[in-house]
Amino acid sequence: MAATATGTNQVVPVGVGGGPRPKNGNGFHGNGGGRGGDDLSFRFSPARYRIGVWMAIGSILMLFVALTSAYIVRSASANDWHPIVMPKVLWLSTTLIIISSITIERARRSLKRNNQAAYGRWLVNTVALGIGFVASQLVAWRQLVRQGVYMAANPYNSFFYLFTAAHGVHLLGGLCALTYLLVRTRKARNTLDGELRRVGAADAVTIYWHFMDVLWIGLFSLLLFWK
Amino acid sequence: MAEATHEEVHRHPAPTGFIRKYIFSIDHKVIGIQYIMLALCAVLVGMIMSVLMRVNLTWPGTHIHIMETLFPQGAPGGVMTPEFYLSLVTMHGTIMVFFVLTTAPQGGFGNYFLPIQIGADDMAFPVLNMMSFWVTFVGFLVILLAIFAEGNATVGGWISKLGESFAGGSGTVGPIGGWTGYAPLSALGKIAGPGQGAGVNLWIISIAIFCVGSLLGALNFITTLLNMRTRGMSLMRMPLTCWAWFTTAILALLSFPVLLGGGILLLLDRIAGTSFFIPGGLYVSGALVPNHAGGSPLLWQHLFWFFGHPEVYIAILPGMGATSHILSTFARKPVFGYRAMVFAIFAIGGLGFFVWGHHMFISGMSPYSAVAFSILTLSIGVPSAIKTFNWLGTLWGAKIRFTTPMLFAIGFVSLFVAGGITGLVLGQTSLDFFFHDTYFVTAHFHLVMGVASIFGMFAATYFWFPKMFGRMMNESIGKLHFWITFIGVYAIFVPFHAMGLLGMPRRYARFDEYEFLKNSKGLVMFVTVAAIITVVAQVLFYFNFFWSMFKGKIAGDNPWEATTLEWSIPSPPPHDNFAGIVPTVYHGAYEFSVPGAPNDFIMQTDGEGIAADISGAGGNGGNGHRH
């Protein structure tokens, strides 16, 4: 374990958050760059996880841009638009997901400071909050169904179920990624490469989770205020 | 420093088992070839459908024996019904656009050559890359299932068990709404006509799956290009092919989610009883549509075309990249105006997001929006012209080597101009009012998006085949294939313009019953004969492709004397492309006929000595040498 810890100490600042970037000229900014040497570490830069997750966010955002423009167009296209009374439990969901954003940020910072125990703890908290969010969303659905509010009854309902479901599917993806990170905390990485990957992945999942939070707040506000 | 601990590097060893090597491979080269093979299968299906359509148009009521066997309901007595014809139109369009024009240029050649050309050992996310292919493959299986779910009563019976909206076996080969699947008819279910039950459901599901596969691929392409360029590979030293694949990936990343969103809404209208696209009071097939009201059919058109227009650039941009690359190589000259070419690619891609309304001029949109869409559409002519003139500038005064890939690249330029010029006609609202839904439109998009893209891919295939399989394709067969195809496609699609001027409508199953089209009979016949000859000529290509794979002349590392990184490594490349070496790039991608240089080309990896020798010479198209 000691070997792992020292290895990690050397590695962690590289490419995490706003830390210094490897000067190999293959990131976002570096063009050209130095030459010479058969530097195999050149083959891997953890920035790819961050770029990848931002690209994923871009495309998910476009999906929701399409759906919300449909929402706005549809709300104006006929007089059959009857907003429902928002289930109170959704405020609980919103609170949970906001807190989970804080906990995952704490996890990321713990990893950055190489505090493995705290990292694992905050991850567990985040997963628990994420599951709580999903449960709370399901409770909201159940309440609505019990009141007889079904998807096809009117377009507002359709969009309500669609938004919550589409967000939920993406959030479940995030939960899977979190679980993966959690499993990874049990398995030490004793190579520089493996460690960079672990940190890069944690970084990417954090960004994604924040996005899920912001996306939910956006959708919830739309459902609340654009009636 | 940290390198000391770095014995265990990020490189997976070459797989040994058959399955991991050739089927569920995470090697971008194998995945690229898988995409190309998928496209080669899909294009066969699409071509057979187009021949069947032509036969029906020319000789309505022909008895085709095999049709009776395969589709006893859709073609009773071997004679196809109008609905069967419409479903052929739909499936031909869908299969060609998605599974040929989107898979081969980007998924196929992009996957194979983008990492090599930027000096990377693989894509950024190899497992994601594998998933993107297999997801796409499942999408293809679902669209094939749609053919039999509607065309065959037995398969239709199985599918029908899934629920009311999955009613199949109606005797078509899929939906009848065209590849655009316009609502509300596509949203109603089987009441809207044959093929509108299981056919549409499977069509939507297939496209949704395809969207997911493309998104995974696009994400991977962008990350790879931004993150994995090798030492010295600055953005402005990249081959134009990489720029084209990069722009295409951005377009895919931003446009496919919109289609996915639209598809989800459409599917919900069909199976969950919602009314996103279905207006109230709809009277279809002699009955009032119950339980739906308030939806907007135009909303589907907006969502579809917001995707649909970038999609046509997704199809053609890689062809443009390959053409620039190949023209420069065989003209032995640098690409004329490299920077302008890069900006033109981005301009075409960017503008492509703001012109979707030109597909909807007759949808009753406000004339002011129509004018805005029209002006934006016509402005795409500017970057397109930049590209065309730069291609011509590249060819100007060159000692051209007329190899098969070069012929196809020149053919691409020709077809792009011939097809693109009618875009200026159709982009004007007043003219579009007449031409909309006529063969003029069909002529336009087949030339510019269909055939030109395919020519780009033919050029790419003949050009890169030696690298992919280590053997040359046969030049004589290749040239014969080129000339028949080149003359053939013009013989098919130029008359389409005349038919459009006559007012011949798209998607009609037969024209012999219309007085005003009586004179077009010869024209229709001519096109059909040309189409059959052209399709048969593709046997030459398939034969050449598979025969050369095993029997072709052995190719060296760099048979075309080209400059980019893929030609600096063995053919076919080793498992991790550069055999553990990180290549260093010193030059731009198109350093041909450099004054003072020992050869007429300088590889991107050629050392600094050469760069120093020629640094005073300039005259190099302005790329490279900018530190």
Give an account of the 3D structure:
The complex is a heterodimer of chains A (227) and B (627). By secondary structure, chain A is mostly helical. Chain A has helices at residues 2-11, 47-77, 89-112, 116-146, 155-186, 192-225. Chain A has one domain: Four Helix Bundle (Hemerythrin (Met), subunit A) (Up-down Bundle), CATH 1.20.120.80. Chain A is built from 6 helices and no strands. In chain A, helix 2 runs parallel beside helix 6 (192-225), helix 3 (89-112) packs antiparallel against helix 4 (116-146) and helix 4 runs antiparallel to helix 5. Mean pLDDT of chain A is 83; it is low at 1-38. Chain B has helices spanning 18-23, 28-58, 65-70, 82-101, 103-117, 126-151, 153-160, 185-188, 198-227, 240-271, 297-331, 338-351, 367-379, 381-395, 404-426, 429-435, 439-469, 475-502, 521-551, 608-614; strands spanning 283-284, 287-288. In chain B, strands 1-2 form a two-stranded antiparallel ribbon. With 627 residues, chain B is an all-alpha fold. The radius of gyration of chain B is 25 Å and the shape is globular. In chain B, helix 2 (28-58) packs antiparallel against helix 5 (103-117). The interface between A and B is large, with 57 and 64 residues.
Summarize the model shown:
The complex is a heterodimer of chains A (227) and B (627). With 227 residues, chain A is an all-alpha fold. Helix content of chain A is 71%, strand content 0%.
